[in-house]
Structure formats: structure tokens, C-alpha cells
């Protein structure tokens, strides 16, 4: 198991290096001089000497390979550089905002799993019946409705009509735990609706496939109860595709919660990325993209380890 984990870790580190290199190259390929863009006022070209001075300050006058090695050296020390707009540390800004997005995505995943897994198993056990058709139809509906529509409806019902929670905003957990959880609830449910539908459909299909296997049929023929079959044979074998889907969606959600954070005024890393792209703040864009990509790689690494635990054949493959 340790040898398998070490191999996967080396592959993950190589992927992070590749991502860091690609981010650096893409940012430098984009047309336009960051120094000119920062100094331009109202579309008027800045003085050339000011542009030259700023390029020297930002290190943009150095050869590309020198900039690349400086960039990698900074990353190795946890330094993502400083914002071109306000000179704030990019690492500090990400460290402030990333936990909020991770909390939001984590809460959404928990809600999706709490509802998606049991409903998926239930739909599989009632395959072809009215309950199965109802759950499948609801899942298809949840996947077809845009996330901003779901968010608006949740605000209308929970905040406007029932007045159970505030319409949006953010407050630190240490300041007011109950209010924090109340503000977290609506955006988390908004994300969980679509993710839960995916979990339900994947769980249903996986459970149906496992139920057709010979050892499960043999257990049924021996008179083993349905609950025991589900607990001993079905759930463990059906978890692998569910884990894959959830991990992939979590990685995508880290950078895709822009609309949700905007609708609910949640100050996470996605909104920070949009602001950075709009202002052409390259150090911020590079830092955010690299961190999100690294988390995606980390999730895949953890999924590989979980595979090895669920199915020992994986680590010997």
C-alpha cells in the first residue's frame, strides 16, 4: 500500500509541476503588456518611461526562463507574488478566501451524499416501479435547471417567504456560529441540488450492476435478507464509481462556484478569480488557478488511495 501511495504521490507532484508550467506559459502568451494595461488611464497610452520603470519593478524585463525559474522558486517557498493592483500578497488573499469556498463545496458534497446515496440505492431496489421513475425524473429536473435559477428559488422560499435564513452574506463562524451556518445553508443547498442528482443517478446505476453479479444472486438464493446483501455486498462494490464522480465534480466546483458566490454574496476564491481576470492581475490569476488545479490533483490522489482501500486489486494492478 505504501509503495502504491508513493507512486501516486510522485505522479501527482509531476502533474502540479506541469500545471504550474502551463499556467506560466499561458499567462505570458496572452497579448498585451501588463505594465501598459496597469498604467493606461481612460484608454490613453502611458508614458514609455513609466512603462519601462514598472516592467523593471515587476521583473517583466528579464528573460523568460529567468522569470520562469524565479516563479518556480517562489512557488517552492509558498510565495505566489504580489497583486499588481494593490500590492497585497496573493498567498495571503488566497489563504483568506479559499477556506470559505472549500467550506461551501464541502457542505454541498455532504448534503448531496446524505440524500443522493440512499435515494440512489432505493431507486435501484425499486427499479421500474413508480418510485424509481419519480426519483429519476426529479434527478433529471435538478440537472436541467441552471444553478442561478435554483439559488433564486431557494432565496425566494427560505429567505423571502419563510424567513428562515438571511438572503445572503457572510459572517465568520467564530463571530456567530449559528448565523454563519444559516448563511452557509442556502448556497450549499444550491450546489447540492445538481450534485445530489448526479450521485443519485450514478448510485442507482452502480447498485443495479452489482445486484446482477453472481455472488449477489447466490446470496439472494440462500435467503440472505435484502438489508444484509446491501450492507455486505452492494454498497462497498458500488462505491467506486460514486467516489470517482463526486471527486471530479468537487474539483470542478472549486472553480465553478462563481454564480453561487455572486448570488449569495459569499466571499470565496471564485469571485476573487473573476475580479483578477477582469483587472488583468496576472499574479493573482496564476496563483488562484494553480491552487485550484493543485487541489484537483490532490483530490484525484486521495481518490486513488480510496480505490486501493475499497478494492485491493487496484494497488496490485
From TrEMBL:
It is found in: Cell membrane. Pfam families: BPD_transp_1, BPD_transp_1_N. Keywords: Cell membrane, Membrane, Transmembrane, Transmembrane helix, Transport. Residues 98-307 form the ABC transmembrane type-1 domain. Its main location: membrane. GO terms for cellular component: plasma membrane. It is a multi-pass membrane protein. GO terms for biological process: transmembrane transport. The chain crosses the membrane at residues 9-30, 104-125, 137-160, 180-200, 238-265, 285-310. Belongs to the binding-protein-dependent transport system permease family. This is Peptide/nickel transport system permease protein. It comes from Humitalea rosea. The lineage of its organism: Bacteria, Pseudomonadati, Pseudomonadota, Alphaproteobacteria, Acetobacterales.
Amino acid at each position: 500500500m505504501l509503495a502504491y501511495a508513493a507512486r501516486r504521490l510522485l505522479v501527482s507532484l509531476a502533474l502540479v509541476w506541469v500545471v504550474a508550467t502551463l499556467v506560466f506559459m499561458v499567462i505570458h502568451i496572452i497579448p498585451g503588456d501588463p505594465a501598459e494595461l496597469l498604467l493606461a488611464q481612460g484608454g490613453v497610452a502611458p508614458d514609455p518611461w513609466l512603462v519601462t520603470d514598472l516592467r523593471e519593478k515587476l521583473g517583466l524585463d528579464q528573460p523568460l526562463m529567468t522569470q520562469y525559474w524565479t516563479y518556480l522558486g517562489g512557488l517552492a517557498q509558498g510565495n505566489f507574488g504580489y497583486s499588481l493592483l494593490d500590492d497585497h500578497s496573493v498567498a495571503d488573499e488566497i489563504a483568506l478566501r479559499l477556506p470559505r469556498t472549500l467550506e461551501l463545496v464541502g457542505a454541498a458534497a455532504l448534503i448531496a451524499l446524505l440524500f443522493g446515496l440512499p435515494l440512489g440505492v432505493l431507486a435501484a431496489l425499486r427499479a421500474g416501479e413508480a418510485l424509481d421513475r419519480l426519483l429519476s425524473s426529479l434527478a433529471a429536473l435538478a440537472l436541467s435547471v441552471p444553478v442561478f435559477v435554483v439559488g433564486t428559488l431557494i432565496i425566494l422560499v427560505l429567505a423571502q417567504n419563510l424567513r428562515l435564513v438571511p438572503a445572503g452574506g457572510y459572517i465568520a463562524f467564530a463571530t456567530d456560529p449559528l448565523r454563519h451556518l444559516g448563511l452557509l445553508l442556502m448556497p450549499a443547498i444550491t450546489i447540492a441540488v445538481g450534485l445530489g442528482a448526479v450521485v443519485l443517478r450514478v448510485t442507482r446505476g452502480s447498485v443495479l450492476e452489482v445486484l446482477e453479479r453472481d455472488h449477489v444472486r447466490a446470496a439472494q438464493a440462500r435467503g440472505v435478507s435484502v438489508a444484509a446483501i446491501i450492507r455486505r455486498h452492494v454498497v462497498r462494490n458500488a462505491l467506486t464509481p460514486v467516489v470517482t464522480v463526486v471527486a471530479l465534480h468537487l474539483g470542478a466546483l472549486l472553480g465553478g462556484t462563481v454564480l453561487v458566490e455572486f448570488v449569495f454574496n459569499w466571499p470565496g476564491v471564485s469571485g476573487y478569480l473573476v475580479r483578477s481576470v477582469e483587472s488583468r492581475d496576472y499574479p493573482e490569476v496564476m496563483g488562484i488557478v494553480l491552487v485550484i488545479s493543485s487541489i484537483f490533483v490532490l483530490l484525484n490522489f486521495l481518490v486513488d488511495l480510496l480505490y486501493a482501500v475499497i478494492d485491493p486489486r487496484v494497488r496490485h494492478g
